[in-house]
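Job type: complex structure
Entries:
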Amino acid sequence: MSKETNSGTPTDNEVILGILNNSENVLKRLYIAYFPMILQLVINNNGNSDDAKDIYQEAIIVLYNKVKTGDFELSSKLKTYIYSVCRRLWLKRLSQMNRYGGDIKDFQEFLVVDDETEKNNERDIQFNKMGSALQQLGEPCKTIIEDFYINNKSMQEICEEFGYTNADNAKTQKYKCLQRLKKLFFQQK
Amino acid sequence: MNDNSQLTETIERYLNGEMTKAERTNFEKLRSEDANVNTQVAEHKHFTGLIKQYGERLELEKRLDAIHDEIDVHALEDEFMIHPSWVVRMWRNHHSKISVAASIAIFAVLSTLFFTGYLSNRELNYQQLRGELHGLKVKTDKLNDKLDGLGKNQGGKQFINPGNFRGTGFAISSNGLIATNYHVIQNADSVYVQGNDGKSYRTKVVYSDINADVAVLQITNPSFKTFGAIPYAFKKAETDIGESVFTIGYPREGVIFGPGFLTATTGYQGDSTHYQVSIPVNPGNSGGPLLDSKGNLIGVIDAKQTHMEGAAFAIKSAVLMKAIKDIPADSLKGTLNINQKNALAGLSRPQQIKKLENYVFMVRVY
């Protein structure tokens, strides 16, 4: 890769390849390239910079997941796509806050994107449930679950870390933790 | 309890691909036979998958946050913020409240007006408005004059009166000077005068005063010699209210006599250059002489107020005299003598008119 491609706005293809290859560099350049556009949109339409950050990250995650799951089809410029998703998200947020005055000041051309964000929303709800279930789970269960299921640590490592005398004890503990987590997760409405 | 723990561990080993081939075949067999085990496998897979995705999401958010922290948001914010005026911001944030307040205010005003009887008591205002409307009409009356003349032409009388516009004029000196209104001859290509005897003369405009609405014509026909002595005198002093006055003019073919009284020494809206007279006048009377009972010329018929009884206006003779004096000497043939001798005093009205009508002309404008 030449030097120029390591800084500045990445091309649309670069972004897709970069996300597929988990490239930190591309993600960063993508983020930096289009954030000002969204900041401009939000702060000039009754929002602040934190709103812009939330909206923008949500849109980036939508894009990221779509690319990762392979059902992303680039039908327009990536810039337009991101702007359109953010615009829709922000309109939704505005009407939820009852601050939507009926018009929005636009700074870019945009497409009509519908339900792109709906699937993501459902997932968000699941993730929120999981987050609060893990919080309620408490230590050491939370760390054991996170280490084993998220960070892919082996039972042996976990055993050493928590000072269990043998792996079986650790396994039993992990099993109990998982059962509790399931219970907490499904209890939530 | 222990069984369940064992089963979970087996499922995990199965899902992670840690089983030997024999174990795997065995487990798959168990799975296909026991529906309970099968659902447990699916549930476990889904749930641990969710935990994993949750972890990934957290990680991604952390990465994005880290990137976000590198951006100088404040500088960008300042750059992109459109700073609308406080009125606009106020409106954006509070427009629904403002709208409601405005509606209430309008309603309050209307209901107050209604209950105090203001809305039903409009006749007073209405009367004033009518007065103003009349005022506007008098200004356009001069125009009507000409349009009427035009209408007559189109009415099939072209062989008698082919002029585009028509008015009246009267002799002011024996050598062929004729006074009329400026509005009669404005925009004229050529101007002819026709006497009561049917003789027609070509004239040229030697003087016009737009403000005073006075124009002076000079007969240019070589055959024209003189009018003879002008029978009426020009009165310089102002005439009093109540004086019996009359005019003769050409509102149609042939001389028409119009008797009346001088009713005010000011014209429309207190115009001090005009008299108000109560004389029946019609389009075509413009430029006609206004004479008092002794036969002194006291004014020039000029306009009337429409939809109002007995309100015609005449330019005062003093204004006419001033205009005549202002005629440049080089546009005159010879000297201009204003007649001060009145040959009409003491005559009866029909005799006066008989003498007068030879000095009053129909002005035709092409």
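Summary: DSSP finds eight helices and no strands in chain A. The radius of gyration of chain A is 21 Å.
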